[in-house]
Known about the structure:
Chain A has helices at about 1-15, 20-35, 40-50, 50-60, 80-85, 90-100, 140-150; strands at about 75-80, 110-115, 130, 135. Chain A has about 150 residues and is α+β, with helices and mostly antiparallel strands. Chain A is elongated. The longest helix of chain B is centred in the middle third of the chain and has 18 residues, at about 125-140. By secondary structure, chain B is α/β, with parallel strands linked by helices. Chain B has helices at about 20-25, 30-40, 55-60, 85-90, 90-105, 125-140, 160-170, 195-210, 210-215, 250-255, 310-325, 330-345, 355-370, 370-385, 390-394; strands spanning about 70-75, 110-115, 145-150, 190-195, 220, 220-225, 225-230, 240-245, 260-265, 270-275, 280-285, 290-295, 300-305.
Amino acid sequence: MAEVNELVKTLTQKHGKERGSLLPILQGITEVQHSLSAEMMIEVAKELNISTAEVYGTASFYSFLDTEPRGEFVIRVCKTISCDMKGKKQIVKTLEDLLKIKVGETTHNKRFTLLETNCLGWCHKAPAMLINNEIYTDLDANKVKKIIRKYRSK
Amino acid sequence: MPQDSLKRVDFIFDKEYDCKSVLYDAFKLTRDEIVEEIIKSGLRGRGGAGFYTGVKWKFAKEEKAEDKVVICNADEGEPGTFKDRAILEEVPTKVLGGMALCGKVIGAKRGYIYLRGEYNYLKPKLEEEIEKFTDVLRNELNFDFTIKIFSGAGAYVCGEETALLNSMEGLRGEPRNKPPYPTHHGLFGKPTVVNNVETLVYAVMVFKIGADNFKNIGIQGSSGSKLFSVSGDTPKSGIYELEFGMKVSDFVEEFGDDDAKAVQVGGASGFCVPRKAFAKTTIGYQGKLKGNSLPTGGSMMIFNSSRSMYNVLHNYLEFFVEESCGQCVPCRIGTQQLLKGIEAIKKGKKSSEYLDNLLALAETMRLTSKCGLGQSVANSFSSIVENFKEEMIY
Lengths: 154, 394
């Protein structure tokens, strides 16, 4: 609990306690904890003096703010039309085989979460995926294997 | 010989010109003169909706308020669009210049770039550029203007300007009722101008080349040029700056793979142009053009004969189901029912006549949805269903 307090305090000091600071604060927590736990949201609500439902309402609206536990590395494969046409299915299959999880799941060691997402803005270099804030484009099975190997050794 | 309507230009990514000196000259004019110049240029928003930029600035300028806000909308989420990312990566100072110019005109001292979460990797470099640029503004142009980046968190609907404002206020990114418009009641109630990344760059360009010259580029009613994001079945995918007024047939001639059966203009919320309509469809804001003219945020996706248009539409509808904010019933329920409907027809669970019901539903969504998201689902739905009916059924 002390840890929760400390992180929320640091973030409110940085961004302020106004309602307009809510999104930056939730993003800051996500960066450290990879997702928003119930106790985190309760603590944020207390600090900003708004109801917990308001915090959850905002958090649950945005696809980059997860209220379910996520791994250290969140993989988001673009599934919108250009990537879909250029072999997104193969990329997802490769990732599922490598990580032994399905889309929407997290590995047991809490390192990787595999998700699909909407247009990442790399249609001309499809297929594309994000791992946390890093973008990878022009993907094929081999490239994906190399990338995952790199993250495994991190 | 028919004249080729495809004219390539290079204004946006031209690194030669010095944004600072353009602003230096522009700042010698009065605020009224600046806004009149932008109005005269005929510049319209490059995000897709196409509102007159100068008029928007004038509305905000006329508001009496101590504190006003300029927002650069970099929540580029339309499928098939990736030009704003390239602009922010390659010529960020021009964007910041456009923001400063707008700030000067309307009397704002602060600006924000609403950067979509998917582009977080642009942040470090952009922050450096902002620091350098605001120093120049303060020390050399005598204009105190702060610019901050606000990160989005993965919501397509936040590209709609009032949803964007709600998002910045820490709320769910649900669009507001209009009026009041942001120029009157924007971020936390302050008069606010929200402009697309590309629009801001063109605002600076108007002062670089002059409003009259700007007006002469493109066609009547659609002044200037536009960045197009080209993807799909093309050997030349990428970003191209072209004059307004080009015919889809010329576009396909240049960018297609000789087998194009359809071009989706304007992304998932845009229109599908089938091969038979290539020659009579022009790219520009609707109005004085002959035949069909299509406004666009610049997304051009080419599909060749190997593609199933059912799959394309299915992909778009899945996109809308997920990205509908859920606030208004026509959009929330409509997107789901359109998706279920085409699946049922494909599987033979519904007869082909059911397509007419779905077309009527799409039309109802156009008329009754609260914001552009729900209203524009009918664009792609109707244009794909009407032109590729067999592919929907068999």
